[in-house]
Amino acid sequence: MWFSVIALLLVSCGDDFLVEEPTGNEPTIKQIGEAGAVNPEINGAFMTGVYSTMFTTGTGGTGSQSDFGQKGFDIYSDMLTGDIALTLSTYGWYRAAITEFQAPLDFTQQENYQGWRYYYRVINRSNLVIETVLQEPQPEEEADLIAIINGLTDENRHIVAQAFAMRAHSYFNLTQLYINDVTASWNSPTLPIYVVADLVGNEKSTTEAVYQLIEDDLTRAISLMDDFSRPSKVEIDKPVAETILAYVLASHNDNRWTDVVALTNSAMSGSPASLMTADDSINGILGGFNDVNASGWMWGIDLNVDIGLGLVSWWGQMDAFSYSYAAVGDNKAMDQGLYDSMRADDIRRNQFLDDPLSTRNLQPLNKFFDSDRIIFGSSQIVKADYIYMRYAEPLLLNIEALYHTNPAGAKTALKDFAQTRIDDVSYIDALNGQALLDEIYKQTRLELWGEGKSYYAMKRNKATTVRGDNHLTFVGEPIPWNDERMTLEIPLQEIQDNLFINDQN
């Protein structure tokens, strides 16, 4: 009976929380927590529910065909930066709201609600896991929390650690997508904080308070994961949590670069993953980015027939070899200027079709592809997986952090990385100061194109982007990182439902 009730609660998209006191036959948080103390599979099932939010359609609360979990916001963010160009728009997805910036300038647009609803849903479900494992809401005092955690089994300790990490990951994404300038708003109220499993409406906390929660959650999770050996790459492990924390620290505090170096070094040394090679095998950068077993992947999900993804998916929107929009007229391609910035001997040029006469020009036909490689092919996504993080991320962030702490070391590390992609890297020897940092930033954009990370890098580097001539709008217009068009708005629904928030600012 317990598992049937839990299964029903996990798939419910309505309330996303359990009642403290039962109104019928449903269990309370405490009752499920007591059962989970005996059988950790129960708590594990709730954690699986958190991860499933990342790839389930509609988890942003809409029926939009761009609403399919974390990878949907990876597209949003890469399009906002301009690194992904919408070069042909037949069906209109992403065009007005994202590429023409209507959503960032109009809080009534559903794209604002979609991101807000998705990340707070993950937060709520993470809080639910924390409460069921602890058998009570999270204590306010850290000492009380640690005392409870110390009494848990190893399995339950690892489950609650993952929940802390997922909660932090969501709050971090909210700071990036919904706060225009983190530093300028450090002492201003920006986002509501929830640490209990009930989204009843809270007032906005300061950016500083949100970041403190994120850092506390990740620091705690990293400590609790010391002896965690995850069963699959869908779970967050210690190196993944360390990389997330490195992103967090790099995003707001110039005095934390030494910590970023330490975290990324630890993540790389502790992960079994490695840098993807320049060949076309499963482990190579021309290998399709379609198999979670690739040695370069640190975090991802093995999509299968039971998950049932099809047209409404990241693959459907990005991949011409999947049966969906990218195949039939909603083309997503690399920004022309970014492509032209690649050196002629850069192997990554081969990830994109270079044919100015083709309507598919600069589509990532050799970076992302369903393994059948038939244009407008598979209608079900079963031979292509979702990537959330790979080894190149802590590596490139480490090089960026080294620039701020040890520029000579950064130059050496950049050359080591670049020579895996470029035949002649001697040009790096002449780079110093801002020119060196600009090259690190460019290499990050080139390496991680289409993976949802260029938005973080743009904000970290306070960069200005200029759209190339293969965009449909705003071609050649410089758009700085803190332009209002780069940040989503608190949605109308939140303002209507939350009595503590009365405007989108």
Automatic annotation (TrEMBL):
Report the superkingdom from the record: Bacteria
Is the keyword Signal in the record? yes
One GO term describing the cellular component: cell outer membrane
Annotated localization: Cell outer membrane
Domain SusD-like N-terminal: start-end pairs: 105-229
Q: Which InterPro entries match?
A: SusD-like_N, SusD_RagB_dom, TPR-like_helical_dom_sf
Asked whether the UniProt record includes Flavoprotein among its keywords, one would answer no
**Keywords tagged on the record:** Cell outer membrane, Membrane, Signal
Which part of the chain is the RagB/SusD domain? Answer: 364-464
What family does this chain come from, according to its entry? Belongs to the SusD family.
Q: What is this protein called?
A: Uncharacterized protein
